[in-house]
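Bug #77: duplicate submission created two jobs. Keeping one. Sequence:
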Amino acid sequence: MRTRTKAGIQWRGMNEQPAIEGAPAGDFRLADWLVQPSLNRLTSDDRVIQLEPKLMDVLVYLARNAGRVVSKHEITDAVWPEVFITESVITRSIAGLRRAFTDDVKNPKFIETISKRGYRLIAEIRPISIEASRRFGHQERTPAGSSEASAAAVPFVVGQWVRGETFYGRTSVIDEVLRGNRNWLWLLGTRRIGKTSVLKELEHRALSSPDLGFLPVFWDLQGADRPEELHRDFADALLDAEERFSDHGIALSDVQSDDLFESLGHIRRTLLTKDLRLLLLCDEVEELIQLQRKDPSLLRKLRRALHSRDGIRSVLASSVRLWKLAEPDEDTSPFLDGFTPPLTIGSLEPEAARNLVRQSQLPEASRPDFSDQEVERIRELCGNHPYQIQLLCRRALDRGDLDEAIDDVAHDRAVGFFFSVDFGLLGDTDRTVLHILAGEDHAPLEAVQGQLEDQPDAVATSLTMLESLGLVGQGIDGGFAVTSHFLRRWLREANPESPASPKA
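Kept job's structure:
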């Protein structure tokens, strides 16, 4: 039976990863922005921006030293301890923060560059109380290692990728990538469905199982919207993987070049001599759409490099936006030729979702204490969506009340933002079908087609696609419904003229 205290639901503790030493505890305001380090989130009015974890770490370090000039060396020691990185990594991190805040390097309001010395955070910082912080769905951090932190740690990861003991499900996708015969794969999914986590888990399992014969390299393309950035980001990816190259007797200096295509060729040939293949795990691949517009020849060259017959298995992860690169090219085959059909990453299987709620892979003392009834309720409300499950569970443990947490998530602007982005990427028929289903409990195919009489085949195709993405599910009666309570609610409120809106 659940044990309740005056403070709410009790759960078993789990040690947190230590934060940057001396960093601000909990959320804070930076000018008009709410900064939530544990969620990697920036919020201002209706804008919600998710930062990469390292960018948030850099911002937190600057906030800790607000008003003081900090050198690149200091930032490196704080954020990348015991890891060799180039100065360009710091430069791009600062550039990424400036883009997030729409800051002008020539007339800065947030981050000032001091020539030959470093950077200075100049925006006003204000701490946020625990009570105010909780209204945004975040429990203020307690110093790691303290008795309070041990008692209050929440065993759910929100807004960050997971792997290993915190990764659940996706068995068929993992097996297809690591043990299948395809060397060109595309992982397609909505925002927050766990695409990066799948890539990181593939990296983890490839390193844990040398018999698979892969040397994994994780390549984050975020921000690589110019040719020079693409080359630099690949060089950074190789630096991150330097130790694993060294483990196989390969000096990075022997295979790395300023040109990523030369590097790929050197790596492929060198690994083949050691009976290894490069497992190239590419995240945020939508950035290639911008590169296609700026330099089509670069994309054609990249496609040829990724389609090497031997020695490279290429895995792309993106949203449906990348379908733009499947459009015919006058000069050559589309970039995605060979990567289709994609492996769609949708909702978790029911048992994997249950295990996620229970955190069954953690030591028993670290698991939350949800009842079986609560597990099923959480899973069904979230439509087995991993991000929604983690967020709802974290809120429930933070609030000590599941009903309060459900209402909190339903009104969370960040959740609505993710829904709006995914919805905007869908086609017209897909959006109409979702609106229709949001107003129905379980609608049979014929009923949906009846509201779109002029395109019955398009409705069937749309339902298949929406189901694969985890947005729609089919019940035992054959009827279709929007899987997530929170998405269904958002659809009903997002467009008062939609078929899903309640009739007066």
